[in-house]
Design goal:
Keywords: Membrane, Transmembrane, Transmembrane helix. With 213 residues, this protein is an all-alpha fold. It contains seven helices and no strands.
């Protein structure tokens, strides 16, 4: 948007020295910028899915699978994984469709509508990922408390005495802090990457509103 702002300043300073740029030319510039932003959203979502898939592939070793079996959640985690891939692929398809819609739109109103739709899709995508991370984290923590032998031996040492309540308060506090930090890092990533693109996209929307008036 810096180029557009500089261009508008030049109009005011030199409106008698240079030929005036039409609204159609401004629209073409905003259309090109919006299409590029949505294309990057589509590309980044694919790269993100590939990165998470590689992390899962290299961390899901035999010990990890045995742990899931001992926690009696192997089937549940597998179900979560399948559902997650289906939903992520659906979002990637929506990002691609949004890109095609913006890339082929031919009016200011249509472009504004597609920009808002794209922003909403990205916001849903971010919230879905944060919620899914929360569900998987809570599932793992509950299974650990119930089925992990080392944890049960440790917690059994505090049962029936005054330190029992303190032990569970410490576990709860540690869980909340760790969960908050983990989700916070993921949210910060989305804020920096997708948030930056969405802010630029919204600036385009605001400029289009001026044209549409």
């Amino acid at each position: 948007m810096e180029e557009l702002d500089l261009l508008k300043k030049d109009w005011k300073k030199n409106e008698h020295s240079f030929p005036k740029i039409t609204e159609q030319e401004i629209y073409a510039m905003l259309h090109k910028k919006s299409s590029s932003i949505v294309k990057w959203i589509f590309i980044i979502s694919i790269l993100e899915m590939i990165a998470w898939s590689l992390i899962s592939f290299f961390t899901a070793d035999e010990n990890y699978l045995k742990t899931l079996e001992s926690y009696h959640i192997k089937t549940l985690v597998t179900t979560f994984t399948v559902i997650n891939y289906i939903v992520i692929f659906s979002f990637i398809f929506l990002f691609y469709r949004n890109f095609k819609s913006i890339n082929t739109t031919d009016s200011v109103k249509s472009l504004m509508k597609n920009i808002l739709k794209t922003r909403k899709t990205v916001q849903y995508y971010i919230w879905y990922n944060l919620v899914m991370i929360g569900i998987i984290f809570i599932t793992m923590m509950v299974a650990t408390c119930i089925y992990d032998e080392r944890f049960n031996r440790m917690s059994g040492q505090f049962e029936g005495n005054d330190q029992g309540m303190l032990f569970w308060m410490m576990i709860l506090g540690f869980t909340i802090v760790f969960f908050g930090l983990f989700v916070g890092v993921i949210w910060l990533f989305y804020r920096l990457v997708y948030g930056f693109l969405l802010r630029r996209l919204y600036k385009n929307y605001e400029e289009l509103k001026k044209i549409d008036l």
